[in-house]
Design a protein that fits this description.
295 residues; D-Maltodextrin-Binding Protein, domain 2; 3 domains; five-stranded mixed β-sheet; four-stranded mixed β-sheet; 39% helix; WH-like_DNA-bd_sf; LysR_HTH_N; transcription
């Protein structure tokens, strides 16, 4: 018994006429008759009663056809899912991202991906760059969006591609005495308390911030650390200190925090997509291809 035979039986049950059923199937009538007879012999029951003028389906035939339709439906569904999975149109994508990507970059990337692949389930996790690297290596993330000159990867099992560039800006409470300055000299923050994230969570970005302040002649007085960018901005709003953050955070447009470009102007900072080398998932490939640089 095979799927072709099931299709023959179902079509014959619809037509109850060998010639018409054979025509729909693109077969010669003797071929169809032979296949029906072969299946009946295998089952040991008659599925159809034939006379020289008419074809009638038997009770056994009706029961068989009902099940055959279900089998054919599931076979078509399995074929469709296999093809969609192979093309990366269904499945799941676990995506990590740093907080500074969540306001403009991430929504833009996700909209584009959802438009092209609405059948893929997304699992989104906000986490620091170094945490993403660990999760990628452990296989718990498929793709990361993180900071660093090379994606912050520096690991032979990971690869990265740059997808965005930004500049660092100062974040100050609107009540800060220098909140009006635009641009804001980096040196003018030398006496301020700072709110920053621990270096271990994002060494590349942390080092770039330290390089800015040290170039201005001082070591920042970090009085409070926080893991997420949103928390850092909240602490700045509470007058806990000032901070230096990626410019994308300015899209928050909070009434109690101002974001000021720095002088001298900082070097641009990069955001990268990172993934495991040799990754064969079509879903990962599609996400990467959607966000590949235009040539």
């Amino acid at each position: 018994m095979n799927l072709d035979q099931l299709r023959y039986i179902v079509l014959l049950a619809e037509e109850l006429h060998f010639a018409r059923a054979a025509s729909r199937l693109g077969l010669q009538q003797p071929r169809l008759s032979q296949q029906v007879r072969k299946l009946e012999d295998e089952l040991g029951v008659l599925l159809f009663e034939r006379t020289t003028r008419e074809v009638h389906i038997t009770s056994a035939g009706k029961g068989f056809v009902a099940e055959a339709r279900r089998v054919l439906h599931h076979a078509e569904r399995a074929k469709r899912i296999a093809r969609q999975t192979g093309r990366g149109e269904v499945g799941q994508l676990s995506l990590g991202f740093v907080g500074s990507a969540s306001h403009e970059l991430l929504p833009r990337l996700l909209r584009r991906f959802r438009q092209g692949y609405p059948g893929v389930k997304l699992q989104l996790r906000e986490m620091a760059s170094s945490q993403q690297i660990g999760e990628l290596l452990a296989g718990r993330l498929d793709i990361g969006i993180l900071h660093g000159p090379d994606g912050g990867v520096g690991h032979p099992e990971l690869a990265a591609q740059e997808i965005s560039r930004d500049r660092l800006v100062a974040a100050l409470s609107r009540r800060h005495p220098q909140a009006y300055r635009d641009p804001l000299p980096i040196a003018s923050l030398a006496e301020d308390a700072f709110v920053l994230f621990p270096r271990r969570l994002g060494p590349s970005l942390h080092d770039q911030i330290m390089h800015l302040t040290r170039s201005a002649g001082y070591e920042p007085q970090v009085t409070q650390e926080a893991v997420h960018m949103h928390t850092i901005i909240g602490l700045v709003a509470a007058d806990i200190g000032v901070s230096i953050v990626p410019g994308a955070m300015a899209s928050l447009r909070r009434s109690d925090v101002v974001f000021r470009p720095l002088t001298p102007q900082s070097h641009s900072i990069a955001l990268h997509l990172a993934w495991r080398r040799g990754e064969t998932s079509p879903v990962v490939r599609n996400f990467r291809n959607l966000n590949a640089p235009r040539t």
